[in-house]
Amino acid sequence: MINETETEISTLGEFGLIEHITKGIELKNESSVKGIGDDCAVLDYKNKETLVTTDLLLEGIHFDLTYTPLKHLGYKAAVVNFSDVYAMNGTPKQLTVSIGVSKRFTVEHIEQLYAGIRLACENYGVDLVGGDTSASVTGLIISVTCIGEGDKDKIVYRNGAKDTDLICVSGDLGSAYMGLQLLERERSVSRDSSDDFHPAFEGREYILERQLKPEARQDIIEALAKAGVKPTAMMDVSDGLSSELMHICKQSNTGCRIYEERIPIDYQTAVMAEEFNMNLVTAALNGGEDYELVFTVPLTDHEKVAAMKDVKIIGRITKPELGYYMETRDGAEMELKAQGWQAQW
Amino acid sequence: MINETETEISTLGEFGLIEHITKGIELKNESSVKGIGDDCAVLDYKNKETLVTTDLLLEGIHFDLTYTPLKHLGYKAAVVNFSDVYAMNGTPKQLTVSIGVSKRFTVEHIEQLYAGIRLACENYGVDLVGGDTSASVTGLIISVTCIGEGDKDKIVYRNGAKDTDLICVSGDLGSAYMGLQLLERERSVSRDSSDDFHPAFEGREYILERQLKPEARQDIIEALAKAGVKPTAMMDVSDGLSSELMHICKQSNTGCRIYEERIPIDYQTAVMAEEFNMNLVTAALNGGEDYELVFTVPLTDHEKVAAMKDVKIIGRITKPELGYYMETRDGAEMELKAQGWQAQW
Questions:
Q1: Mean pLDDT in residue range A8-19
Q2: Do the Cβ atoms of B240 and B340 come closer than 8 Å?
Q3: CATH no. for B166-335
Q4: B-chain residues within 8 Å CB-CB of A135?
Q5: Do A56 and B130 count as a contact with CB atoms less than 8 A apart?
Q6: Is the distance from CB of B174 to CB of B270 less than 8 angstroms?
Q7: B41 contacts in A (CB within 8 Å)?
Q8: Is the pLDDT of residue A240 over 80?
Q9: At the topology level of CATH, where does A9-150 sit?
Q10: Is the predicted ipTM greater than 0.85, yes or no?
Q11: What is the C-alpha separation between B6 and A343, in angstroms, rounded?
Q12: Distance CA A271, CA B89 (A)
């Protein structure tokens, strides 16, 4: 599989590989005191609180390299962790990345992966400060930890939603999931096709990008701050809206009521759902990997959030005994279920 | 492989498994504001600096479950990260653990792994504050990140060693490596033996424990503080003394000279090396996984470190042009080489 223009990792060794992929990294944040090159990274958050989140991404479980470019994968692995820090109303500042790679990967592959990671860091103002590299028996393993900062009185947890609060969501939902369906279908088709197979991706760029290169909603966090709105509870949508909303309600001891007609869905998502003969609302509620923000605000902030670009009010928080419900377009009630993405054990 | 008394992970699912293994976890450190259960853990280090270190441990590369009990593995995975924080002259405070597990693992297996992790956290006063769980295609994957704190003026880097500084090392070296050799041999023997095979471990408990259940040298850090000694440079010995010492010298722009007769070696290590017909000093210099501390102190601290229990002065820092050398017992000079443990790519 390794051709002449590619370099086997064994030619560099572990220390050589680390040196190679971390070349030219500069620390830009004041809080990054010491990055790669010691037993620990050293950070100084002064009077801010420290936020820590971590994700493990495994080939064959979380990603499929037949249709995921390594640069996109690196970008996404970093961004989904930034998203968790924004979901606390914080700012991501540092990242550590550990990788395990099998013999089928070359130095050039790892370069592409890190090109994506470094681009994400650059775009979001985050410093790469550490990690670990290792051989793996099989496949690619990526473990990412993001550290960020937040003001003590501005950090938003999941447990602060109150009865009558408005439920808001950024962007649109279900598009990343429909992008995944499209990629999976084209992969199946390509297997049965001749060599000059061209996947049917035209006009579907948006949903593909949502799946392969998602962005974290730093802009929404900034807009909320600018508008003087502090959400009472917030999460990012990684497992699907239903699942996340139920986390907020359970931890806040509340119920919720959302309205189908208000759930933001992109045109391409709707077209794809029809093509696949899938229920569009199910995709939006349970699809996952949207990395949008779902948050609750007091009723008194109604005007402020209603005026915000790319934010939609989709319902309200209720008393706990009222349960978790969606009102459908035809006025029926549907109970929400946490059918979010779950790995197959 | 799963018998009647064991529970398949699929019966719990991802969220159920997380709930199960994190049951009863209490946060004990003042700096742990919020642990498991939100998008991020929240820490408050006030006027201290934050230390971050991370390790990726892969089955078949870093550990072999035919002779590694899961509880020991969990303990070791946590402790080796604490060791990195002590090596900065800091104190570990929080831990995140992500695991990927294949279908051959049961809930009971994961319980054992976490029993070890939680025991290590208890012994070292560290809070488990987050992580990620996932299915894996094959084998067990463990990713650990440790966060700790340090006083700005007390953190010790690798780059502060000065000409004439004394080189000190805690405990003894090479024992974990000889323990590994013994385990590997007995595994080979057991394969060719009948069912009632009993490995020849008697009288070798010390080197086995050094390999399977290492401890981090918190006691040495405390003793140094008590004695009023701040090392000029420090690392923990994970890749072998030679490799670590060369890291210190390169980053400090110095040379070094150590003395073979002063390198601390345990009796069991020496016996095993003879039995295996291996060079004892090579095992001590390059064996790795000792998790002892190697550090340098100014000459003026000579009396203080000489009086410290379980610390040995093994040489001194020299000018960079003098290179990295060991004086052997017979007075010859041997150049040090970084032959530390390297994964096979």
A1: 84
A2: yes
A3: 3.90.650.10
A4: 58, 61, 343-345
A5: no
A6: no
A7: 51-53
A8: yes
A9: 60s Ribosomal Protein L30; Chain: A; (3.30.1330)
A10: yes
A11: 20
A12: 59
The mean pLDDT value of chain B amounts to 93
Region A233-247: mean pLDDT is 95
B201-240 burial by CB neighbour count: b if 16+ within 10 A, else e?
eeebeebbebbbbbbbbbebbebbeebebbbbbbbbbbbb
Say whether A145 and B96 touch across the interface (CB within 8 A).
Answer: yes
- Within 41-100 of A, beta carbons closer than 8 Å to B belong to 41-47, 49-56, 58-62, 84-85, 87-88, 90, 94, 96, 98-100
User: Which residue type does B106 have?
Assistant: T
Q: What is the pLDDT of residue A2?
A: 56
Compute the mean pLDDT over every residue in chain A, rounded to the nearest whole number.
93
Residue (of B79, B33, B52) closest to B211 by Cα position? B79
Residues of B in contact with A235 (CB under 8 A): 39
The structure tokens 């379980």 sit at B310
Residue pLDDT, tens place only, A18-29: 888 888 899 999
Q: Does residue A291 carry a pLDDT above 90? A: yes
Q: Quote the CA–CA distance of A344 and B11 in Å, as a whole number.
A: 11
Stretch 135-164 of chain A: residues touching chain B, C-beta under 8 Å: 135-139, 141, 143, 145, 147-148, 150, 152, 155, 157-158
Percent of chain A clearing pLDDT 90 (strictly above): 83
Q: Which residues of A touch B38 (CB under 8 A)?
A: 88, 157-158
Strands A91-101 and B91-101, how do they pair? unpaired
CB pairs under 8 A between A and B: 215
Cβ within 8 Å, pair A132-B45: no
- Cα–Cα distance between A57 and A64 in angstroms, integer? 11
Residue whose entry in the numeric block shows the structure tokens 């962007």 = A171
Give the three-state DSSP class for A195: coil
Interface of A with B in 172-191 (CB under 8 A): none
CA distance A271 to chain B (A): 32
CA A159 to chain CA centroid, Å, is 21
Q: Which of A14, A50, A88 sits opposite B343 (nearest CB)?
A: A14
**Annotated domain spans of chain B:** 9-150, 166-335
Which structure tokens are listed for A8?
């086997």
3-state class percentages of chain A: helix first, strand second, coil last, to nearest 5: 35, 25, 40
Distance, in Å, from the CA atom of A345 to the CA atom of B17, rounded to the nearest integer, reads: 11
Give me the residues of B, 235-294, that contact A with CB < 8 A. 235-236, 251
CA distance B40 to B55: 19
Is the separation of the CB atoms in B254 and B163 below 8 Å?
A: yes
Identify the bridge partners of residue A297 per DSSP, sorted by sequence position. A166
- The list of chain B residues with pLDDT below 70 reads 1-3, 194-195, 340-345
Supply the pLDDT for residue A345: 43
Contact A49 B60 (CB under 8 A): no
Helix, strand, coil distribution of chain B in percent, nearest 5: 35, 25, 40
Nearest to A130 among B40, B54, B143 (CB): B54
**B152 Cα to chain A: minimum distance (Å):** 9
| A343's tokens | 């790995």
pLDDT on residue A342: 47
Question: Model-level pTM?
Answer: 0.94
Q: And the tokens for B233?
A: 């440079």
